[in-house]
Please model this.
Amino acid sequence: MGLFSRKRRNPKPDAEPLSAEPLGVDATGDFDLATIDLPRVEVTPEVPVVAERMTVRTYSACDEYIAPSIAPMTPFVLAVEDEPTMLVKLAGMSRAEGAELARAVAADDSLAVAAYRSLPTYPVFILALFVYDAPSDPMRFEGYRDVTTVDVQDFVVALGRKAGRGQVRLYSESAELLAVGRFALRMPPFQQVRFPYTTTPNELHELWQLLQLSAGWYNSLPAARRDFGMAVEAHMDNEPPL
Model:
């Protein structure tokens, strides 16, 4: 599930990030899924598996097997050939708008942004892609993800291994590949960015802490009360986008 992108002006001001260093991550950002208690639910379509390493599965052929079926205007995340990857399929945009976004993606002018909310029925893990087609007014593609899914967990672990950098693959409405570029993880809130941006070790720690908080909230809820769809609807009704 995801929220259609909107141009967002007036970014949030800078603030102090989380400072506690979570368990299960060392100074290199090598996140360990064995330290958190979450199910691993399969959601990805049948695609070729390249390798499985330390419980993380990596795929290839995402253009052919995954892009045509993903929801438009919201990031689909997974590990593709050991790279944390965000797939975005456009919809309802002019050719000129798509071309400008493709230019920015190919120039590596993209940020992955993560956040977390504890909702009464489920933890909501927010993953957004900010594409800086305009320096002060990026296009934001925001998505809400279920932390029990294999793809989300493996994306987070791969980000730790790759120091917060990964791949963006941008597609047209018909799933034609428009551009491939690189993103860097940045944790909110922030106001300005210069590229290339380098993810800090503390931002990687914050990302892992969000997954740990999500796991804790998930396990605190009775099984009969867990409802991811209801949590997303409540979040969209009551909170602004990132």
